[in-house]
Write a structure and sequence with these properties.
Lysozyme, mainly alpha, 0% strand
Length: 195
């Protein structure tokens, strides 16, 4: 083999290497482009998860910034909801005080929302469109209290226990469940109502 043939062979080899590298690069670019949509969805998912964690961490500060409803407006809304559903306005007031401190934007760690701290299933049951809208929350909370009072034959301690812990736990316990939070909840509200 002569020098010219050897040089041609080397040149062809280098051209093949360059062509292969360019093809590999363009193939990698095509793969990256095809994966970009999936990668963006993954990035968006990670962003949502990080935001959710931050909102849980920052929730106490955000809730602290949520101002309680002014008393004249609150009293009018409570009276209206209580009258509509046949419940003592003082009971609705004290449940709202205990649940949210009269702050309509509160969200509990368990997912209860609004002034009366309604869980999503309860919101759906009472067709609450916006749990952070005070009138809706008060109306649904008053209706729930009325149902619980009827269910437990007017026994306020059982109705309050069920509002806090759920009817299933009250029924299973045959009274106030042995849950410290629920016992304190009932005692606090009854104590204020008896003052």
């Amino acid at each position: 083999m002569g020098r010219a043939e050897a040089a041609d062979k080397v040149s062809v080899t280098w051209l093949l290497v360059i062509f292969t590298m360019q093809d590999t690069r363009s193939q990698a670019e095509r793969i990256r482009a095809a994966m970009e949509s999936s990668l963006e969805q993954q990035r968006a998912s990670v962003r949502r998860q990080v935001e959710a964690v931050h909102s849980v961490i920052e929730a106490p500060q955000a809730q602290a910034a949520c101002e309680p409803i002014a008393q004249p407006d609150l009293a009018r809304m409570i009276d209206e909801a209580a009258r509509k559903h046949g419940v003592d306005p003082a009971l609705v007031r004290e449940v709202a005080r205990q649940e949210s401190g009269f702050r309509p934007c509160v969200v509990s760690p368990k997912g209860a929302e609004g002034l009366m701290q309604l869980m999503p299933a309860t919101q759906a049951q009472f067709q609450v469109r916006d749990p952070f809208q005070a009138e809706e929350s008060l109306a649904a909370g008053a209706k729930l209290l009325k149902q619980l009072l009827d269910r437990y034959n007017g026994d306020l301690s059982l109705a309050l226990s069920a509002y806090n812990a759920g009817s299933g736990r009250v029924d299973k316990a045959g009274g106030i469940p042995e849950i410290p939070e629920t016992k304190n909840y009932v005692a606090d509200i009854l104590g204020r109502l008896l003052q």
